[in-house]
C-alpha cells in the first residue's frame, strides 16, 4: 500500500549500512544503528529549507493576526467573505499556510515507513501484519531492497546485547528469529527504557525552547499576542500538548517501539535541537537587518539639522509678468518680417510699448528710448 514510502526508506538505510560496514563490519550493531541515525540526518537535511521557509511564513502570519482579526470582526457571520479576505491578505503578504505543514507531513511517512521496514526483518510472528514465516523462510526472504544476506546480518546484529528490531512487548515466539537467543525481556527493557526516557525528555525541551522564544518575542514587542481570548486559549492548549502530551505519549507507547526506531527518534531530537538554534539565530539576524534597513531609510529621508522641511502644499507660486513685459513684444509680431535692411520706425503706443530696431549683423543693438515724463508734464 505504501511501497512508494517503504522502498526509498529501505534504499537510504541500505546505502548507509554499506558505508558503515567498511569500518565496523556488516553484522555489527554499530553499523546498523549508525545507518538508522544517518537515515534520519539525510531526511532532515532535505527538510532544512522547507523548515526555514515554514518559520518565516509563521512569523509573517503572526504579524498578520491583527488584520485577520479585523476581517473576522468586520465580516462577522459571512464565512465566504472572511475566507476571501483572508486569502487576499495572505497572498499580498506572500504567506502560504499549507506550505508550513510540509516538514511535518514528510516526517510522518518516514517514521511509519522506518517502523514497517524494521519490523519486516522479522516476519515469524502470527499477530497483525505478520506473515507467520518459519525461521528458515524468514532468513532467506528479502526485505524490500535488502538481500537475504542483509536480512541475516540485521537479525544477528546486537546493540548492548539485544536485537535492533526487538521491542518490549514483542511476543516470545518471535525471539526464535534471532539465533542464538542470548537475551531476555529484561535485557530489552534495560536498553529500551533509557532510550524512551531520553526521547521523551528531548521532545519536551525542544518544544519548550520554541515556546520560550515565542513568549520572549511577545514580551519584547517583536511579536503581537493573539487578538482575542479564544485564540489565546487555543494557543496555550497547543503549547501544553507540545510540552507535556507528546512526551507522555512517547513514554506510554514506547513499549511498542523497536530499538532501532528509538534510535531514530533520539537522532531526530538531537538534530531538531541544533537546527532550531540555528534557524532562530538566522531569523533574528534577518529581522535585525530588516529593522536596521528601515531605520536607515528613515534617516535618509529625514531633514538635515537646521533645515526647514519642505511642505509640498506650500509650493512657491509662479511669478506673474508685469504689464511692461507683456507689452514688450517682438518686432516680428508688430510689423512682420522686413524685406529691406531699412530702419523700422518705433511705434510709441501705450498697449504695445516701444519696439526696438532690428539688429543688423555686427551692429550693437540700440537701447530702447525711455519715455520723457518731464516733457509730458510740461505739456
TrEMBL record:
Q: Which InterPro entries match?
A: YidC/ALB3/OXA1/COX18, YidC/Oxa/ALB_C, YidC_ALB_C
Spell out the subunit comment.
Answer: Interacts with the Sec translocase complex via SecD. Specifically interacts with transmembrane segments of nascent integral membrane proteins during membrane integration.
Tree of life domain: Bacteria
Q: Where is this region: Disordered?
A: 291-379
For whether the record's keyword set contains Lipid biosynthesis, the answer is no
Positions of the Membrane insertase YidC/Oxa/ALB C-terminal domain: 32-279
Q: What keywords would UniProt list here? A: Cell membrane, Chaperone, Membrane, Protein transport, Transmembrane, Transmembrane helix, Transport
Location comes to: Cell membrane; Membrane
User: How does the protein's chain sit in the membrane according to the entry?
Assistant: Multi-pass membrane protein
**Where are its TM segments located?**
31-52, 97-118, 188-207, 241-267
Q: What is its main location?
A: membrane
Give a short account of what the protein does: Required for the insertion and/or proper folding and/or complex formation of integral membrane proteins into the membrane. Involved in integration of membrane proteins that insert both dependently and independently of the Sec translocase complex, as well as at least some lipoproteins. Aids folding of multispanning membrane proteins.
The entry's protein name is Membrane protein insertase YidC
The family annotation for this protein states: Belongs to the OXA1/ALB3/YidC family. Type 1 subfamily.
Q: What ranges does the record list as Low complexity composition bias?
A: 300-309
User: Which intervals carry biased composition (Basic residues)?
Assistant: 370-379
Please tell me the species this chain comes from: Corynebacterium marambiense
Question: Sorted alphabetically, which Pfam families does this protein's record hold?
Answer: 60KD_IMP
